[in-house]
Amino acid sequence: MRKIFRIYKPFTHAGILLAAQYRVNFIFFLLGDILMCFINYFLWRAVFNSGGAQTFMGFSEADMVSYIFISFLTSTLAYSDGSYAVGEEIRDGSVVMRMIKPIRFDLAFLFQELGERVISIAIVFLPLVAGVEVFRFFATGAVQFNIVRFLLYLLSLILAYLINFYINVCYGYSAFVLKNLWGSNLLKNIIIGFLAGSTIPLAFMPPVLSEILRILPFASLTYTPVMIYIGKYDLVQILISFGLQIVWLAFFIFLQQVIWNACVKRLSAQGG
Amino acid sequence: MKIFKKLHRVFKLHRIFIKQDLKRLMEYKIDFATGAVGMLLAQGVNIVFLSIIFSQIPALDGWKYEEILFIYGFALLPKAIDHLFTDNLWAIAYFIIRKGDFDKYLTRPVSTLFAVTVEKFQVDAFGELFVGLLLFGISIPHISLNINPLNIFLFIIAMIFATLIYTGIKLITASIAFWIKRSGSITYMFYMVNEFSKYPTTIYNRVVGAIVTYIIPFAFTAFFPASYFIAGGNPWYNIGGTVVAGTVLMAVGILVWNKGVSAYESAGS
Questions:
Q1: Which of A117, A56, A83 is nearest to A189 (CA)?
Q2: Which of A152, A251, B72, B174 is paired with B223 by a 20 to 30 Å CA distance?
Q3: Which residues of A touch B199 (CB under 8 A)?
Q4: Which of A43, A64, A174 is best to mutate for the B interface (most B CBs within 10 A)?
Q5: C-alpha separations of B185 from A138, A258, B41, B50 in Å
Q6: Of B71, B114, B44, the residue nearest B257 (C-alpha)
Q7: Looking at the partner chain, which of B28, B52, B57 has a beta carbon nearest the beta carbon of A50?
Q8: DSSP letter at B268?
Q9: ipTM, interface predicted TM-score of the complex
Q10: By CA distance, what is A39's nearest residue in B?
Q11: Is the distance from CB of A116 to CB of A22 less than 8 angstroms?
């Protein structure tokens, strides 16, 4: 394990430098994205004002607001650019430069992306969590922050990121076949965002559909960590969802290896 | 007569470029399909979201489901038209200036702005256009619209100037790249404000409402004109506001663009 860290540390370092270079851009993009949270916030406030009921399908207003912002935080932090980066390298043939080195393709990407994440964590984490907690305090009149639940959330978030990373790497390998990824990447992000519950809590879907979506790997990306954070899951549900996350992570690591081995055989680097 | 000749030339060039772009698309058929389907799904997801909300409440801030769908559809049309014709401005903001590729537009015998926008015909926009028209089709039979020649005329006017609001905001923010080389993230931030236009401005608080009405006036691309057609109201404010906002933003946009072009310094190799 220590050896792995020693070998791949330079990639993390490069990632940090890369992200630091673009931090101003990152903040503008973030401000643009966070507008969506505020639209949803106002929309839900209007819903609760119009409905007259205290809860909407089991969610109180404070729950809903927390859901909006924490799911934004979760999907921002668990975001992975892997498919695009991998796809680009395959497309322009520079993947060859990685293949001749004695390093693992997936780990090099993973450690670089972790470095890039450091900056975004530093920028978004504290303000969003603090904002949500202050809101919950005023909405419910009591401190809702629970350190155990928060730590469980962090653990779930890390698993979510790793799953997302490997899903994206698997997907990026499709560039070995497709060569042109931009359009399908957009489509994939929308579909996954929907299935992961980042637009609509899965609990609002029809019961059968909601059960199926919860078992699929996508719920592990956003829905599971968020539900843990806002305290909608009891201990049994938390244990089950951790189990699911670990199973899916193992599955995608394995899948990634299988696809890589199969693809390397038919690699035709363009102009390489 | 001179202006007609000029317009004729513009349309001719547009046709040639669109034809060229469609040929390129035929090469990447799957990319076209996925792009348009992606845009379509992105809106579809929001519609599902709205229908879930309305399964629990009868009206949102006094607006019923079909009225909200009409406003939403109204918001998509100018967005789609702008997307279709001026998508290349994003490329200006992101990389054309930074890489020094802007040089080539300076050599063309047409205005730089026209040369840039005509270069790309963004068919992804058909996804949004389709959803917008679909929402009109679903919602219009259920709401009482006052359809008469004057309102049809006002509708067309509103669409044109609402599109100019989009184009103007993109133009102003993309032009910043002439000075700072890369302004994509700024364009993105301002452009995202358009999402506020999909819902009645009355659901926002006063500060946010004032921002989307007077500062980044996306409320005039959808809610104000659409609510005039649904609920009546003062056309001088609801439609006139769109005309004023569109004209002002576009004029400022062209001004900033021209200043930017003269400040442009190519990239050293």
A1: A83
A2: B174
A3: 39, 42-43
A4: A43
A5: 34, 38, 24, 29
A6: B114
A7: B57
A8: P
A9: 0.87
A10: B196
A11: no
- The β-bridge partners of B60 are B63
Measured torsion, CA atoms of residues B90, B91, B94, B95, in degrees rounded to the nearest 10: -170
**Site from B32, B126, B185 to mutate, A interface, most A CB atoms within 10 angstroms:** B185
Q: How does strand A59-60 pair with strand B59-60?
A: unpaired
- Please tell me the predicted confidence (pLDDT) of residue A89: 78
Largest CA distance in chain A: 65
Cross-chain residue pair B203–A33, CB shorter than 8 Å: no
Partner residue facing A183 (CB), from B34, B196, B199: B34
User: What would the pLDDT profile of B213-234 be if each residue is shown by its tens digit?
Assistant: 999 999 999 999 999 999 888 8
Q: What pLDDT shows up at residue A269?
A: 56
Q: Which helix (H) or strand (E) holds A60?
A: strand A59-60
- Pairwise CA distance, residues B23 & A178, whole Å: 20
E-assigned strands of A186-262? none
pLDDT tens by residue, chain A, 272 residues: 788 888 888 888 888 888 887 788 888 988 998 999 999 999 999 999 887 778 888 899 899 999 999 999 999 898 887 777 777 777 777 777 777 888 887 888 888 888 888 888 888 888 999 999 999 898 888 888 889 999 999 999 999 999 999 998 888 887 766 655 666 777 888 888 889 988 789 998 888 999 999 999 999 999 999 999 999 999 999 999 999 999 999 999 999 989 888 877 776 655 54
Can you tell me the distance from the alpha carbon of A175 to that of A188, in angstroms, rounded to the nearest whole number? 14
> What is d(CA A249, CA B193) in angstroms, rounded to the nearest whole number?
36
In this prediction, residue A171 carries a pLDDT of 84
Cα separation, B145 vs B229, whole angstroms: 6
Residue ranges covered by each domain of chain A = 2-265
Q: How far is CA A101 from CA A96, A105, A112, in A?
A: 9, 9, 16
pLDDT at position B269, please?
A: 53
CB distance A183–B30 less than 8 Å?
A: yes
Per residue in B116-139, pLDDT (tens digit) is: 998 888 888 888 899 999 999 999
Cβ neighbours of A124 (radius 10 Å): 18
DSSP assignment of B50-99, as one string? HHHHHTT-SEETTEEHHHHHHHHHHHHHHHHHHHHHHTHHHHIIIIITTT
Q: Report the chain B residue with the minimal C-alpha distance to residue A30.
A: B189
Q: Which residues of A fall within a CB distance of 8 Å from B56?
A: 47, 51, 53, 56-57
Six-digit token string for B139: 């919602």
β strands within chain B, DSSP E: 59-60, 63-64
- What value, to the nearest 5°, has the Cα angle with vertex A16 and ends A11 and A19? 120
Q: Is the separation of the CB atoms in A202 and A214 below 8 Å?
A: yes
